[in-house]
Structure formats: structure tokens, C-alpha cells
């Protein structure tokens, strides 16, 4: 097992010469420890099987959901490329910086992601370090964000970007993950990581209606904070090769996909790791 830290970011490590489907106890312990320290682990050409990917994710916690495809390739091989296609809308929405499942009562702990079909251009995945972003704020802004919370909603983020599904249910909801009928989740703008005990910004495209601000003030404030947080010096973008796998800490990192030609196939496999209700539950669901 060889470990190389990314040099152009304050997070992330590349791990090679390891079989993720046949880990020793010592290797598993080392990986979990390194994950808490570095937040993003990259395993080049790991070629995980479906069960192998889910089993690897279970090393970090229970599953929010097992491996699913995030892809513009349908089961019959049909390529989803029409901008009005609901599959395309989900993918295009993921081009904005976000944490996973902050719009659900329990925020995700992290995710395992692997590459199956990769386009020639575009389709990179980027991560942004919200611990470094918080530390880069001046003292006055740190004190301000520590007092604020924001609501997180998939309705808000997809609606603002024009990517809501086409078919609406009679009760105003949609038959898609994240469009639950409960109230929007209220979360602090600063999350103390339960393991490292260090503060991280908890923001992104799903966050809106900051407490003690009007909708207009909140939108302007959050847009500025997101732009600051995701400065180039705090990001890393991965150029995928088929078989690559990663696991990231959703409590510390935001992520996004870069645009690609939707007429070209791209298929990624995503296993989401469930958060701990004691530390990832929204304030208004307690």
C-alpha cells in the first residue's frame, strides 16, 4: 500500500498497490485513519465490483443507499442528452458545488464513487475543502457565520437552476430522491467535525434563507460565501480513468462535476454513506 498526498491541495491522498476487495485489518484501519485526516482518498484503477464497492463503503458506516448509477446512459443504452430530460437535469444540477443529502433530515457521512464509462473531455469531479475555507475567513466573518443557520432544500437548488422534474405529484412533490414532503432542513453554517473537532463551512447550492436575513440578502450572502469558499487554492479536480474509485468525507468537502458533452456516454457508480443521527441530524428534526 503506497500513499501519496496531493500537493496542490490541503486535502486528498492517492493510494495505490492495494486490493480494496481484500483488505487486511491493518489496511482497513490505516485507510479509515487517513480518511479522517485527508478527507479524500483516490484509488487509481481499483475496478470495484458492485458488492465490492458497497462493502468498502460499509467500512465507514451504514449505507444511505447502495451503489446506483449516476449516468446519462439508460438501461437500453439510450443516451440522455435533451436539456429537458429529467436525467439530464439531475446531472446538470450536480455541476454546482454541494454537500450530499443536506436536504435530507440526516446529512450523508460520505460517499464511494467509481468510474465505469468516462468521456474524452469534461466530466471531472471537483472537491472543495470547507475546513480550509472556514480558516481563511477573517475573524469577524468567522464570528458571524458561527451564529447563522440556513435551510437546505433540493427543491430550492434544482428550482433556482431550472432543473425541477417535469412530472409533479398532486401534493406538489416529485417521485425522485431528495424531494421529500417534510420541511426544509435547518443546518448551521459552521459544522464541527465530530472526529477532528475542527470547524468546517456547511454551505453549497442547497443552502438558502439564512436565519435573520431576507431572501434577497441571504441569496447574495450565500453566493459570495460559496464563491469565496471554492477558490481554486482550496479545490482539486480529478480526471477520471475507467476503474478509478474514491471515497470522500461529505462533512468536510463539497463536490461538483464539470460539464461534458451530454451526447457522449458517462457512467459513474455512487454509494452513499449514511450520517450519524447524533451528529448529522438537521436542527429542526431533533
Describe the structure concisely.
The protein is built from 8 helices and 15 strands. By secondary structure, it is of the alpha+beta class. It starts with a strand and ends in a 6-residue tail after the last helix.
Task: Explain how this protein is built.
The protein is an alpha+beta fold. The strands form four sheets. Strands 1-2-3-13-5-15-4 form a seven-stranded mixed beta sheet. Strands 12-6-14 form a three-stranded antiparallel beta sheet. A three-stranded antiparallel beta sheet has the order 8-7-11. Helices cover 24% and strands 25% of the residues. The chain is built from eight helices and 15 strands. The radius of gyration is 18 Å and the shape is globular. The protein has a single domain, classed as Clavaminate synthase-like (Double-stranded beta-helix), CATH 3.60.130. Helix 1 links the parallel strand 2 and strand 3. It has helices at 25-38, 50-57, 86-93, 130-136, 139-145, 154-160, 215-229, 277-280; strands at 2-5, 13-16, 40-43, 63-71, 110-117, 125-129, 149-152, 185-188, 190-192, 199-201, 207-208, 235-238, 245-249, 253-257, 267-273. The longest helix is centred in the last third of the chain and has 15 residues, at 215-229.
